[in-house]
Each structure stands twice: as structure tokens, then as C-alpha cells.
Specification:
Largest sheet: 6 strands, mixed
Number of helices: 10
Number of strands: 12
Order of helices and strands: EEEHEEHEHHHEHEHEEHHEEH
Distance between the termini: 71 Å
Shape: globular
Oligomer: single chain
Helix content: 25-40%
């Protein structure tokens, strides 16, 4: 099958750096988070990407207020927390997809709002939670659009661009789909194609909003293994939002735990993940034991239903 790269991305390409930012003014104070201590931030690692005193809101609804976050350089940071706690909202603010109502996001010391979109796109890539491909576009064309930030009037499509696109498609397992229309693919296949486009962007910082969405368990671990390889062997800084706590603990070198729009704990998973933290944050009674494969924290939920069933069965026998 011939490989025909898509050479000049048009204005319909939808990447994080070109989406419009929205502004939402704060209207009320955030309520306190009961039972959750403030995270220990005594040791501050170097950070190219950080947020300072962020207020994040949609229309008149505040999601986070006074939020401060630093993304450690060269780390694989994973953000976890209950539904609607502000995980994806924070990621969108860090990517300049949404404009904070107050506070500042900084990239390499500069306010990210002041940087040209193409310059941001050469430093920071985003895999959004929901991405929409232009109608009638093939897989190879979409992945090739990841090279758009590297194109200039003087530098058009090159052998290097073609090589990067080939490699991105190979590592995400979509090479055989190159000539297929994106609209014809399954949800899991489309997710891997969007990941390939993000990798083709070849940025030192990658933001991934629920990258395992729509994937079966094998492909979930394939994607996370790929992320770990990018971090460990290629020096990339990764930030991912995940729902699976055990996957987060296994792969993260830096874990950020959020609740009610606030960061309630952060650090290496082995140092911060406890049964008390999980129960307080998620309302889940559990045990935390070492993962038998990796030694990282592994959350075992309490067998509430099984225990209830056993009690009911015993009562029936006695009756």
C-alpha cells in the first residue's frame, strides 16, 4: 500500500492550539472540601508548565478557584478524581483551550495566552477527550496534520515529516488503516488515530485527556505502555487524565488527586495513596496493597455487595 502524505493542512484542522478560548467570570466562592488536608508542596520540582491561582468556570458556574499546579519536567503526571471534580477542565486550561477567569498559565516562563498558537503547538500537544475529524479525511491525512506546526513558507513537507508520521502510525498500530476514512473506524481505532496525530506533532509536553477512552483492556495497556516509553526513553513530559486508579498508580511518576475543584494530594503514588485518601476522596472503602506485578499501590474495593449477599444467605438458612 502506497503511503501518500497529506501535505498542506487546511484551516479545518482541529488541534488544541487553534481552538478558541472562552472566558467565564467568577460569581461565587468555592465551598471548602471537608476532611481533605491541603497537599504538601514543600518540595517544588522544576516546571515548564504551571498554573497560578487559577479560577476556572463555565458561564457562571465555578469549577475551581485559587488553583495552583506545577507539572514536573520529565515526569508522567496523572490527574485523578471523582467525576466533575475539574480534571479535564484543568487540562483544558493548561492547553489554552479554555481561558481562566482569573490567574495565569505559564509555559516556559511566559503567559501562555501571550504566545502565538503555532509556537505553543511546537511545545505542547493535546489529545482532547472528544475530537471531531473533518468529513471525508483519511487516517494518514489526519495523522499528517500533526506536522502542521512545523510547516513554514520556507519549510514545506519533508522526508523528516513523512518519517515522523510513519513512526507515529506504527507505534499506535494504525498503519494498516492509513487509507481508511476516519469516519468509518470504530471508537477505539479513532482514538488510536488521534493519538498518532498527537505524537506526530512531536512536542516535548503531551496532555492526554482520558487517552484510554473507547479502548479494550489490551489497547488500554498498549497506550499506557507507549506513554511510559515516551516518558522513560524519550524524555517527554506527559500529563494524563485517567479514571482507573490502579492504572494511574502503576504508570504515574507524579500523581495529582483532585476533589471538588481542588488538589487534595500530589506526589509519587507510593507516597500519597492510602485507603484513607481513597475513601475520603471517592467515598470508596478499600484496601491498598502492593501491585503483584509492579509493587505500586493497588486499590482493592471492599466487598460490600458480597458481604451483604452472604449476610442475607445466612439469615435465610437460619430461618
Amino acid at each position: 500500500m502506497a503511503f501518500v502524505p497529506w501535505r498542506r493542512p487546511g484551516p479545518t484542522a482541529r488541534s488544541a492550539q487553534t481552538w478558541p478560548a472562552t472566558e467565564a467570570p467568577p460569581v461565587a466562592e468555592m465551598p471548602p472540601v471537608d476532611g481533605l488536608p491541603a497537599p504538601d508542596r514543600a518540595a517544588r520540582p522544576a516546571a515548564r508548565l504551571l498554573g497560578e491561582e487559577l479560577t476556572l468556570a463555565y458561564d457562571r458556574r465555578i469549577v475551581s478557584q485559587g488553583l495552583a499546579v506545577r507539572i514536573p519536567d520529565g515526569a508522567f503526571t496523572v490527574i485523578v478524581g471523582p467525576n466533575a471534580c475539574g480534571k479535564s477542565t484543568l487540562l483544558r486550561a493548561l492547553a489554552r483551550v479554555m481561558r481562566p477567569a482569573a490567574g495565569t498559565v505559564r509555559l516556559d516562563g511566559a503567559q501562555i495566552a501571550s504566545l502565538p498558537s503555532k509556537e505553543i503547538a511546537r511545545r505542547l500537544g493535546l489529545l482532547p477527550q472528544t475530537a471531531i475529524a473533518p468529513d471525508g479525511i483519511t487516517v494518514v491525512d489526519l495523522v499528517s496534520r500533526g506536522r502542521y506546526p512545523h510547516q513554514t513558507i520556507w519549510r514545506q513537507w519533508s522526508t523528516r515529516d513523512e518519517q515522523v508520521v510513519r513512526e507515529a502510525m506504527a507505534v499506535t498500530g494504525v498503519t494498516d488503516l492509513a487509507s481508511r476514512l476516519v469516519d468509518e473506524l470504530s471508537g477505539g481505532q479513532r482514538q488510536r488515530v488521534w493519538l498518532a496525530m498527537t505524537l506526530a506533532q512531536e512536542t516535548p509536553i503531551l496532555l492526554l485527556d482520558e487517552p484510554t477512552t473507547y479502548l479494550d483492556i489490551t489497547h488500554q495497556f498498549d497506550v499506557l505502555d507507549l506513554c511510559a516509553d515516551l516518558h522513560e526513553n524519550h524524555g517527554r513530559t506527559l500529563v494524563a487524565v485517567l479514571h482507573d486508579l490502579n492504572q494511574a498508580c502503576r504508570y504515574a511518576t507524579h500523581l495529582v488527586v483532585m476533589a471538588a475543584g481542588r488538589i487534595v494530594a500530589e506526589g509519587p503514588p507510593a507516597e500519597i495513596v492510602t485507603a484513607e485518601l481513597i475513601e475520603t476522596t471517592f467515598g470508596l472503602a478499600c484496601r491498598v496493597i502492593p501491585d503483584p506485578e509492579t509493587g505500586t499501590p493497588m486499590i482493592i474495593p471492599a466487598a460490600r455487595r458480597r458481604a451483604s449477599s452472604a449476610v442475607a444467605t445466612a439469615a435465610g438458612l437460619r430461618g
